[in-house]
Amino acid sequence: MKIFVCIDDTDNLDSIGTGELLENMMCEASLNNLCSSGMTVRYQLFIHDDIPYTSHNSSMCCNAQTDNLDALTKFCEDYLEANSAEGSDPGLCILTDDDSLDYTPLIDFGRRAQREVLTKDEAYSTALAFGKDVHLSEHGGTGGGVIGALAGAALRAGKEEGRIKGKLQPVPGKTEWTSDEFSKMFGVQSFTDEEGREIKEPLSFVFMHPTKLIYKGGLVTSVIVNENGRLMPKPKIKKAKK
Question: Could you tell me if 133 and 101 are in contact, meaning their C-beta atoms sit under 8 angstroms apart?
């Protein structure tokens, strides 16, 4: 069966990030023949003084397939309890990926989590309405991570915009690309400009700097910008610390 797996609030300032923890967890689950997993998408949630978070208040969600949901769920629960950082409040959500389901209440919750302070009770009551199609559990501390975990899974199920974890690196010796070449090499399904408008015509551009892809409308998307008269995927360069 197809599912979404989302975790939140698993780190502290000295630990690996939630996205890396999710990928490590799913890799180990795969090695144990419990699942295969896909790309990880980061969803930005509401920044507010009443919401505890480490740095950015974002949840991480990946898609996966499994033939043994109960065993995978138990594995993820145990993994979070053993590997989440000291002082964190981990939450886990596993959501059935089924186009026949009406995700509207979940998506509404996810969108609210991007602009409002929500509670654990609201998360659990929202999940409860979906019965066995939503697993929601807390694994340490206050367990407040269930809010972000449910929100991230809901936003992913609703094909809402998020940032795909990781960077694309330029290919040595090749700077000139067409959109068709770029799509075939990196699995890009759509191109937009910085305002989010889809670019449908064929493109020629340079790829010289690391870039991040986004997940938008269910598609792996590259944002194309004009830098000093040259089209290129939007650069993502790590800034030096002051």
Answer: yes
Does domain 2-162 fall under CATH 3.30.70.2200? My reply is: yes
pLDDT at 113: 94
- Confidence band for 3, pLDDT divided at 50, 70 and 90: very high
Q: What is the pLDDT of residues 57-101, one digit of tens each?
A: 789 999 999 999 999 999 999 999 999 888 888 999 999 999 888
Per-domain residue ranges for the chain?
2-162, 166-233
Q: Which of 112, 213, 196 is nearest to 154 (CA)?
A: 112
d(CA 173, CA 150) in angstroms, rounded, equals 43
